[in-house]
Amino acid sequence: MKYQLFILCCLVSLCLATIPRPRGVAISMASFYRPDVPFRCRDGSKEIPFEYVNDDYCDCPDGTDEPGTSACPGGKFHCTNAGFRPLNILSSRVNDGICDCCDGTDEWDGNIDCVNNCKELGKKMREEADRIRQLQEEGYKLKQKFIEEGKQAKEQKKAELEQLEKNKIELEAVKTEMEGKKTEAEAPEKEAKDKHEQAWNEELERRNAEKERLRAEIAFAELDANKDNKISLSEIKGLSMFDVDSNGEVSDDEAKEHLEGEEEVDQDHFILKVWPNIKQFYKSPDSEEQAKGDNQEVTTEPPEVLPPPLRPGFPRHRNPAVERQRQLFAKRASLPDSPTPHDDVVDDDNDDDDDDDEYEDSEEYKPAKGTAPGGQPALIVKEENKTEDNKDQQEEDKMPDYDEATKALIAAADEARQQFNDADAKLKETENQIRDLQSYLGTDYGPNEEYSVLKGNCYEYTDREYTYKLCAFDRATQRPKSGGSETSLGNWGKWDGPGEDKYAAQKYENGQSCWNGPNRSVKVYFKCGTEHKVTSASEPSRCEYAFGFETPTHCTAPPTRSADDVHDEL
Ligand code: MAN
C-alpha cells in the first residue's frame, strides 16, 4: 500500500513538474499564466499581453507580471527546490549574485554558478524529521502509559479518600469516647491530688508558723537580758537596732513605741503584738555587740520549743532551721569562755560529745584570726553551712509522695490520658492524609492526568553559576555552585501556557523577594522528550526565571508521513 502510494505520488509529481509556466511561478499559480490569453495582474488592476510577463519591465502594481525577474520591487520568486522544500523569495534577490534557492534557479543569468544541493538538504531534513518523529512516537507511547497510571492513581486516591473519610468519623467517635474516659478518670485524680497538696500546704504553713513562733521566742529570750520573763523599756533602750530616728540613742518614746505603749511585756504579749512589728529589722543582740567590737558573747537560754504536732498523712521530720536555732542556743550556753549569766538554763543537747564540732558548724562560730579550726576561712565555713541549710530546707519543703490510693488514681488517669492522646494522634494523622489527598485531587495534572507522573519528583539543572531544582507541582529553587543557601524561586502556582495551549507551560510564583524587585518566579516551558528533565534555565529578566523541560507527557501523536513528504523527496 505504501509502495503504491509512493508510485502514485511520483507520477503526479512528474506531471506537475512538466506543467509549463513562466520562471518563478509556483505550480499552484500556473493556471493564471496562460500563454494563449492576456495576463491579468493578480490584484485585478490590469490586463496585459502575455508577452509582457517576465519581460524585465514592471507592469503590475503587485509585481505579479515579473515573477522571474527583479523588475518589480514587491515581486515574489518561487523556487521549486525539488527534493527539499519549496521557497518564495523576494524577486529583488533574483540574479543578485547570491544563491538563495537550493536548486539555484534564482541565479539564472549565468553570472554565477549555483550548485543544486536540494537533495542533501532534503535528506538531512528528512533525517531530522525522522528523528523527531521517532522521538515523538517513543514519547507518545510513554505518555499513554503515564495517562493510564495517572488515571489509576486518581481513582485509587479517590477510593483512599473515601475510606479515610469513613475512618475519620470512627476515629472522631473513639476520640470523644476517650475524652469522656479521660475526664472521668481525671476528676477523682484531681480531687485526691488537691487534697494531698492542700494538706501539704497546710502542713507547710503550720511549720512556718511554728518557725516564726520559735524565732519570736528566741528573740524574747535574747531581749530578756535579766531573765525575769518580761521585756522592759530598759532592755529595749540598750539596743541600737531600736534607734529608729538614728540619733545615737533609743529614747523612752522609741522604746515604748516598740513595746506597743507598754512599760513591759510578757512573752505572749511580745509574740502577739511586739514581734510582728520588729521582726523585719530584728538582729540578735549578740551580733549587735559584735558589731560594736565587743567580743563578749551573751548567751541565752534556748527557749523550750515543743516539737510541732504531727499532721496525719505526713511523716514527722526535723525542721532544720528550728533545730539549728536550738543547737545554737545550746552551744552558747555551754561555751567555756562565754559567761552564762543564768545558771538555771537547761540545755538538752549540750551533753553531746560532738558538741564542739556542731558548734564549729554553727553560723555563729567565728574562730580567731578569721580561720576555721581546720584552717578554712570562716567565711567559707559559714557559706558551706548556709548551703547545707538550704539543701535541708529544700528537702524539707518538698512535698511527700502521694499515698497509694492517689497513686492508683493518677496511674488510671495517666492511662486514660495516653489512650486519649493515641486516639487524637490517629485522628490527626488521618486528617493530614485527607488533606494531602484533597490537595492531590484538587490539582490539575493535565487533560488526561498524564503530568501526575511528575508529582513528587525533583529535577536538577546546573549551569555555570547555579544548580536549579524543580520539584514538580511543588517548588523551584536555586543554589549557588560555590556553596551557600538555597533560594526559593517560587511555589507551584498554575498552568500558564498561551491561549488554547494552557498545558505548554507552568508558573511557580511567590519565591524569595528580589532586592528592589519582584518576588522570584519561574515559568517552565514544556516540550516533548523521551525522559523528564530540565534542559535549560535562564533569567530573562531579573528574578524572573525560565526553565525548559522535556517530558514524554508533552508529546503529541506523531504525524503520519504525508504525500508532501514523499513529493519533497523527488
Ligand atoms: C541572586 C540570584 C540571581 C538574582 C539576584 C538578584 O544573586 O538569585 O539570580 O538575579 O540574586 O539580586
- Major β-sheet profile: 8 strands, mixed
Small molecules in complex: alpha-D-mannopyranose
Q: Let me know the number of strands.
A: 14
Average pLDDT works out at 84
Q: Could you say which structural class the secondary elements and strand pairing correspond to? A: alpha+beta
How far apart the termini lie comes to: 19 Å
Gyration radius from CA atoms, angstroms? 54 Å
Strand content: 5-15%
Give start-end ranges of low-pLDDT stretches: 5-15, 294-312, 331-378, 566-570
Order of helices and strands: HEEEEHEHHEHHHHHHEEEEEEEEH
**Tally of helical segments:** 11
Shape: elongated
Strand order of the largest sheet: 7-8-9-10-11-12-14-13
